[in-house]
Structure formats: C-alpha cells, structure tokens
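Sanity check. The docking grid for pyridoxal-5'-phosphate depends on where the pocket ends up, so I'm generating a full predicted complex first rather than guessing from homology. Inputs follow.
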Amino acid sequence: MTVPPPAAPGMKLAEVETPALLIDLDAFERNLRAMAEAVGPTGLRLRPHAKTHKSPVIARRQLALGAVGVCCQKVSEAEVLADGGVDDVLVTNQVVGARKLERLAALARRVKVGTCVDDAQNARDLSAAAVRFGAEIEVLVEIDVGAGRCGVAPGEPARTLAGEVATLPGLRFGGLQAYQGAAQHLRRAEEREAAIARAAELTRQTVALLAGAGLECRTVGGAGTGTYALEAASGVWNELQCGSYVFMDADYARNLDAEGAPVAAFEQALFVLSTVMSQPAAGRAVLDAGLKALAFDSGPPLVHGRADLRYEGASDEHGKVAFEATNAPLRPGDRLLLVPGHCDPTVNLHDWYVAVRGLSWEGAFVEAVWPVAARGAGF
Ligand SMILES: *Cc1c(COP(=O)(O)O)cnc(C)c1O
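Predicted complex below; grid placement will be based on this.
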C-alpha cells in the first residue's frame, strides 16, 4: 500500500488534492539554468546537494546541465539516487556503523561513491568494508571551518587523518570537505563574506599543509546557496555543493545583498498548495496544511502573493491564518499557495511533487507528478 499522488498530468490547479507539494516548473528550470550559468564559466565543478529534493528525476536534470554528480547525506539516499540513474554520489557526512559501511561499499561496486571522514577508526572501518566488497571509495577529510558541526580541526589534525586515509586499502584520498553551513543564512552580505573569508583561510592553509606532505587535494568541496559566489571567487574550493537553489524558501528570501536588498539570484519555485477549511471568526481562517505538510524550524510559511494574510500557528493538520477583520473573508474551499519556511525538511514530509507549468490560478496545469523517492531515507 502506497499513498496515491494528489494529482495527475493535465489537471488544473483547482483539481489538485491538498495539501500538495507544488513545483513551479518555469521558476525551477530558471533556477537550474541560473546556477549552471553562474558556475559554468568559473571552471569549477557543480555537485548539487540532493538532500534538498531527494529525487533522481531532479538530480538527472542537474547532471544534464553540467553537474558532475550529486551530494547526499545518507547511505539510503545514495542508494535511491543510484537506483534512479545517478552514477556519481558523494555522501557529505560521516557514515558510522558496520551495516551502513557495508551498504556504502556495496553501492560503490555499482556507481562512483565518495564520503567524508573525521575519525581515524571510522576511516579504518570504511576501508575494511571497501576491501571486503572489492570496492573503491573516494574519501574527503572533513574539516570544521566554522560551522561547528562534524569535521576535524583544520591544519595538523587534518593532515594526520589524510595521511592515514591515503595508506588505507580500498580508499582513495580525494581531498577536503570544507562546508561552512552556519554562514548560509547569515542575513547581511558582510557577515557571509567574513565567515567565508575565514573558512577560506583555514582551508587554504590546510590544502598547503597537505600538499607539503605529498597529499594532493583533487577535490575541495563546500558551499551552499547562500555563499557559493564567495567560495567560487576564493580560488580555494573547486567543487560547489549548493542545494536549496532549485526551490528556495522563506528563510533564504530573508538573506540580503550588499545593498541591503533581498538576494535575487534564484526564485521561489516550491509551494504547498493548501485549502481553506473554515473561517470560524472574522479575521481568522483555518487551512488544511499544518505540521505534517510544512517544516517550521525556520519559521512559519508565507502566504504567496497575499501580504495581507499571516500564517500564525500550526497543529498537526491545521494552519491558522490571521488577517484584518475588514478584509474580504476567506471561504471554505478557497486555495492559497504557501512558501515553506525551510525547503528541505518540507520536501521530506511529502511523497509526491506536483510539477506545474505556468503557475497561476487560471492557466496552470500539472505537467508531471514525481515521487519524492528518497523521502524518509534517513538511514
Ligand atoms: C545542506 C548542505 C549543502 C547545501 O546547502 P544549501 O543551503 O541547501 O544550498 C551543501 N553542503 C553540505 C555538506 C550540506 O549539508
């Protein structure tokens, strides 16, 4: 038993079941092209992060536009992507535990697989799994360049670990993973510049230290949608891992450029289509999209094109919208497009994408329905 899709090709927006995860295909395709055109001329490699979309269909669109492969965070995501025709996957995460390492090694028999390490014993376990499966796994040593997540300290600890990785059978030392995740959503351009300048310095020094020890970094990976232009200009990174740019969200829309205006490089392309269930009182309506249709870690959704409506509270299946009592009332059956606060965890709440052409209340039609194939692939 699987959940049927909330729409079928050819349907009008009014016929789509709600809540539904909608892709505005025109905006989505412009985002794909904009990133490809921004990175292409730099000569750097683009390896988009598939944790955003969890979809081999979308990954293949990115590859068709020049991406060298994709990133993901979990072995099960990598398996779904490989099964869906993606032949080069980097797990930008620590893979810990015998079963997970064996699954990764088994996958490396089928497609090109890379992963990150920040621990020598984990690297030895990975090596043992690779040897057992007769596989070769590319390994990036992850350094913490300010995000305070995983990663050894830059400099000497990274050299020590890289030196050990380089001696381990079944592993190919590939370089460094240096993702400054905490910089992505810093609001002001100067704050992002300062954070990436610091990360660049730490990474540059570490690359040089490794080179001095005969450890060449073929790959220096990192960067996200908020900062990729800075990493690209630094001359330090050569592989960019942006993910959210395909969809964007309300939180990224709050990032400001050097002039203090919202960053306009990419467009909102992901929405949750929702229906008004009730208007129990003047100035208050209830939608059918709550905690099970939207992620709230980066704040509530915005109501697209309706600055007069404020999504102000959610429970499992209900979303409360407030507005001036003098506004025209919302009626049960009315539909609204919500801009998710945070795209990645919102996607993971849905089984299906409803991909819509010509997004508008009148002319839009469903062009495709794609599974969120790696939804729930957290292991
Ligand atoms: C999430 C993530 C990215 C992509 O970041 P976006 O802000 O979604 O573009 C890149 N690299 C790593 C390691 C990540 O975890």
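Relevant for the grid: Residues 276 and 326 are 18 Å apart (CA to CA).
Also worth noting: Residues 49, 51-52, 71, 92, 179, 181, 184, 224-226, 241-244 surround pyridoxal-5'-phosphate (CB under 6 Å).
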